[in-house]
Amino acid sequence: MTIRTIFWEDNTVVMIDQKALPQEERYLACRHYEEVVAAIKDLTIRGAPAIGVAAAMGIALGMLTVSSSSHENLKSAFHEICTQFSRTRPTARNLFWAIERMKKLFEDTLSSSPARVVEALTEEAIRMCEEDIAINKRMGMQGKTLFRDGDNVLTHCNAGALATAGYGTALGVIRAACEEGKKIHVYVDETRPVLQGARLTAWELMKENIPATLITDNMAGFLMKQGRIHKVIVGADRIAANGDAANKIGTYSLAVLAKEHNIPFYVAAPFSTIDMSIRQGDEIPIEERNAEEVTTFRDVRVAPEGIAVYNPAFDVTPHRYITAIITEAGIALPPYMETIRPLQG
Predict the structure, then answer these.
(1) 237 included as an active-site residue
(2) Is there a single domain that holds both residue 186 and residue 334?
């Protein structure tokens, strides 16, 4: 079963509306780049690789309306559109990687006609979508070697097809292991406050007929103590050069618990998620989101009016808690400052 998270069709960016899942499987057609900006901000589309593809497609979509303009108007419009996308999700490295890639292509093709520049940007965005799926499948092939038949695996948030252009990072590794014939059982953290695990990961696994059990976030340590968890695998939104990894809030707690119980803790992410310009995790910008995500759920209030709220969307897991980082180029083992960079080649 193929989940199409995002695709380009008839000069329109089409994406599955992740806010509607699991109750309804519907697609949103974005005909203006501002709609893609809004979709990234409000989590209609989320997950670092998917955000990167959405930004690339959104930039191309925005430029369609200025293809007949002069080069000066083209440059002005392009940089304004890129700026708007750069302000959507500050932690997601793939967002900025995608914008940087589109900027490079724009500069390389600017000597062409405006129409050709826009055509090249569209082709590049579509290519990035296709590449992401291929990258995830290679990552799955790399990571499946770390899993054995009969493993019970804990995952957090959603790092599946919905977080990418397709197939997935952490769930992509699990998919690849299952496709090889290994029997894997997945424990799914609900992932407060937006419940990406309960709503999205559980939905994906049921679609794939991969055995899964949903648990609340605060059950993980108890299951580890009971010996029910053999391995933990998560995705990442940004990885520093030393291996520190930013992922959905709650990931750090799981890593500490896994260390205490001698359980391998894996991070799966495309190489584009690794930010070699950031030496350590303390330098990673952490997005803080609206208080209503904590005090309400789908417009139903669950906390008293006026209560103070702190809502960071991500935390950073220090590299000392990470057993291995799985990329499409290979598996990096500690010390990450020495093993990540060679994979880049």
Answers:
(1) yes
(2) yes
pLDDT at position 313 over 70:
yes
Handedness of CA 268, 236, 210, 29 (dihedral sign): negative
Say which of 237, 244, 275, 315 is annotated catalytic: 237
Does some domain include residue 1? no
- Per-residue pLDDT, averaged over 226-239, amounts to 98
In a shared domain, residues 110 and 172: no
In DSSP notation, 307-318 reads -----BSEEEE-
**Are both 56 and 162 inside the same structural domain?**
no
| Listed residues 137, 172, 190: the one ending a domain | 137
Q: What is the largest CA-CA distance in the chain?
A: 66
Sign (positive/negative) of CA torsion 62, 68, 69, 75? Answer: positive
Determine the 3-state secondary structure of 342 from DSSP: helix
Regarding whether 163 and 281 lie in a shared domain, the answer is yes
Average pLDDT, the chain: 96
Tokens of 10: 């008839």
186: three-class secondary structure by DSSP: strand
Per-residue pLDDT of 106-142, as tens digits, reads 999 999 998 999 999 999 999 999 999 999 999 999 9
Give the total residue count for the chain.
Answer: 345
**pTM greater than 0.70:** yes
Range(s) of the domain holding residue 79:
6-137
